[in-house]
């Protein structure tokens, strides 16, 4: 097997296209994984059965598989993106991932670095070259933005397209944003998603693109609304069935090697529970009113803990700011949150 091949393209023009597929069962499993008992999301015969609005965040882990997957999953590894100067490089065929000796965790996310490996069929030559962006110690999952543009079918085959949209210097590293769109085969866009990462220690790169996300300023007054939700002890065990099989969220020994006493909850599982609380409180749980949600990760959550979602109204119609605290510790686990809804009268 040959080593990784890289294709250099102009900044901002990289487009990764990966097929994804899901069915009704996937929608139900996801809804259960974020603590939903709403029949609209867990009962396929309900007249208003639909995908919960944040479901698409799992598709980039799941791909087209309907089985358990290795971590990182093939679709994640196949679309790794590195940055070098004013060019982007995409890795193609010829990859293999394994867990590195040093595992780094921040917030709710395990941050894996892919190591070189020797391919016996290739004279022992390392098949994973150093990424062009130099001195990256670790990639931190900084936040997520998800925008709903159209009703998602309850089953289907689609594709995720996108790539790196911007890279900027921040502190002792780089702040990187990846923009992806979920489309059908005809090109209709259903969702637009932004994943923000902080590349600690990154050097030898050029900034490009306009930063897509900014932090909202949280009010200093008390929140207008609060909602609590207690996570099941099995929260991460159930959520992983949607496609993110990172052992950090299940395996106690693996969690200890990463610096935790116990497995922690997936960041996007926390996102799902948060979105459910917001939608139930502010929109009667109606998926049709969901427009967009943005947040930043701040600290990890442990299965069995209680999330306290605090909500503030703004001067803009159907706009709400929010943050999430862990009741047992008082720590903020999700910060700088912003939710936009469609007005009920538009339905």
From TrEMBL:
Superkingdom per UniProt: Eukaryota
GO cellular component, one term: peroxisome
Domain Peroxisomal multifunctional enzyme type 2-like N-terminal: 21-62
Annotated InterPro entries: HotDog_dom_sf (IPR029069), MaoC-like_dom (IPR002539), MFE-2_N (IPR054357)
Molecular function GO labels: (3S)-3-hydroxyacyl-CoA dehydrogenase (NAD+) activity; 17-beta-hydroxysteroid dehydrogenase (NAD+) activity; enoyl-CoA hydratase activity
Positions of the MaoC-like domain: 217-330
GO BP, sorted A to Z: fatty acid beta-oxidation
Protein name: MaoC-like domain-containing protein
Taxonomic lineage: Eukaryota, Sar, Alveolata, Dinophyceae, Suessiales
